[in-house]
Amino acid sequence: MTAEAHKRLRVTPWIARAAVLFIFLGNMWCALAFLVSPGYYALSFELTGVPGSIAIQGLAVAFLMWNATYPLVIINPVRYRAMFAVVLVQQALGLVCETILYTQIGAGHEQLASSLLRFIGFDGAGLLVMGAAYIVLSIGLARGRAAQDHEPVP
């Protein structure tokens, strides 16, 4: 294997790790903020009181559940590349569903619409970042395998 192919096999997993870790940390920050200070965020969703706080904390739990797949990908994106694909599907589902919800908000709910737009923006950016990392990882692995296949046999 050439030195360049070997380097690519070492570098591309770190690109994937960094991308997934960045989105994971953003999601964890949001989940923890929602858990610790639900009242602060409830108004953004036009919710109030105990029911609003519990709804926001429930959203935090959903964030935690959604992100349970990320650590394996962060640890070893090559070994858990199928899980990486699952992470991308989860991200895409979140983006699509949030967008559908946004389109159903009527006039007079600007604060709610603004909150959903933040989620749409973050999830869209996350999908682009992690999707690009997945592609880079896949190309790096394919090129590394191709280089191994063309090595002369001693």
Descriptive report:
This protein is an all-alpha fold and 154 residues long. The protein has one domain. The protein has six helices and no strands. The chain has helices spanning 3-36, 38-42, 49-66, 70-75, 81-103, 110-149. The longest helix has 40 residues, at 110-149. The model has no long low-confidence stretch (mean pLDDT 90).
Q: Please report the distance between the alpha carbons of the first and last residues.
A: 12 Å
Rg of Cα set: 20 Å
User: Could you spell the SSE succession in H and E letters?
Assistant: HHHHHH
- The gross shape turns out to be elongated
What would you call the structural class?
mainly alpha
Taken as a percent bin, the fraction of beta residues is: under 5%
Mean pLDDT: 90
Report the count of strand segments: 0
**Major sheet details:** none
**Helix proportion:** over 70%
Low-confidence stretches: none
Number of domains: 1
SS element count, helices: 6
Q: Which secondary structure elements does this structure contain, and how are they paired or packed?
A:
Layout: H1 3-36, H2 38-42, H3 49-66, H4 70-75, H5 81-103, H6 110-149
Helix pairs in contact: 1-3, 1-6, 5-6
Name a few traits of the molecule:
single chain; 154 residues; elongated; mainly alpha
Short note summarizing the structure:
The protein has 154 residues and is mainly alpha-helical. It has 6 helices and no strands.
